[in-house]
Amino acid sequence: MKNINIQDFYENAEFTVGRIYRANRVGGSDKLIRLDVNCGDRDIVIVTNLGKHFHPEKLVNVHTIFITNFPSVVIKGIKSDGMLFYGKTPDGMPFVINLGQHTPIGSKVG
Q1: Which of 26, 58, 67, 73 is 20 to 30 A from 79 (CA-CA)?
Q2: 35 φ/ψ sector (left φ>0, alpha ψ -120 to 50, else beta)
């Protein structure tokens, strides 16, 4: 495990609650899912590599955490505006942190 300076990380990373309102597999990939996300003041697109573990339709309407100030990158021709913040079980299986519908969209975490 690589050690990082936690103060630098939290001072610079922007964690935002967003609601996934659309999720689709990225054509030509069994790993990638495109997430259209409402973050309160704006909508963003996130491309995540969790396609082998999740059906896109199960992610729709989930309120979860996104890192929203990473530089945009283009993945398979899609501009991705951040990163889905997810967890992993002790055996390495990813899980989406579902905050529930009561968590206000656009809230900051951290």
Answers
A1: 58
A2: beta
Q: Which CATH superfamily is domain 13-102 in?
A: Nucleic acid-binding proteins (2.40.50.140)
At position 8, the amino acid (one-letter code) is D
Instruction: Report how far residue 89's alpha carbon sits from residue 94's, in angstroms, rounded to the nearest whole number.
Output: 6
* pLDDT computed for residue 1 by the predictor: 56
Please determine, for residue 42, whether its predicted confidence score (pLDDT) is greater than 90: yes
From CA 65, how far away is CA 86, in angstroms rounded? 8
Residue type, 18: G
Cα Rg for the chain, rounded, in angstroms?
14
Among candidates 110, 101, 94, which has minimal Cα distance to 38?
101
Distance (Å) of CA 25 to CA 29, 33, 50: 7, 4, 10
Please report, for the chain, the start and end positions of each structural domain, with discontinuous segments joined by +. Answer: 13-102
